[in-house]
Amino acid sequence: MSVSEIISRVEHFVPELERTQVELTRVFDLKSVALRAADSASLKRLTQTEAALIDQLRRHLSTRQQILGAARQEGLPAESITQLIESTADSTHSKLKDRIRRAERNAERLRKECWIQWIVCNRAIGHCGEVLELISHKGRKAPTYSGGLMKDVATGGSLLDASI
């Protein structure tokens, strides 16, 4: 594959990646609203859409790896798409470089939003677990939560193996 063909593939790849990122950003925005509203039906639907977009990102990753592999075969630096385009230092590629930088910023924003949503969901799960535990122990803490060994015995909160 020639250098011009590789650049052409990058020119086709970057806009597709950006479209997927924009759509995923939209889904994350809607998902944040649904999380705040505790709208489980919307969350379920958005999670399915998110999964499809993640699959699309995986396909983009595969395309990226193919492009970088072809660039390596041509002897071009190919640690990243940015490095590849910069190595072909050509003034006609300035718009492409700008789009690549924008895609990198989008990726960083998506990583941050994904991390935030993961934290929110994990904390929500923890709170639900605590509520269930309070319900199962009739509003009191479980006996295993007391401060020390002797406190358990003094309050009758420890288990004793009567077979000993």
Protein described:
The protein has helices spanning 3-37, 40-73, 81-87, 94-136, 149-155. The termini are far apart. The protein has one domain. With 164 residues, the chain is mostly helical. The model has no long low-confidence stretch (mean pLDDT 85). Helix 1 packs antiparallel against helix 2, helix 1 packs parallel to helix 4 and helix 3 (81-87) packs antiparallel against helix 4.
* Main beta sheet: none
**Average pLDDT figure:** 85
Low-confidence stretches: none
Helix fraction bin: over 70%
Query: What best-fitting shape do the alpha-carbon axes yield?
Result: elongated
The total tally of domains equals 1
Distance between the termini: 78 Å
| C-alpha Rg (nearest Å) | 26 Å
SS content category: mainly alpha
Number of strands: 0
Describe, in short, the structure shown:
The protein is mostly helical and 164 residues long.
Tag the structure with descriptive keywords.
0% strand, 164 residues, single chain, mainly alpha, 5 helices
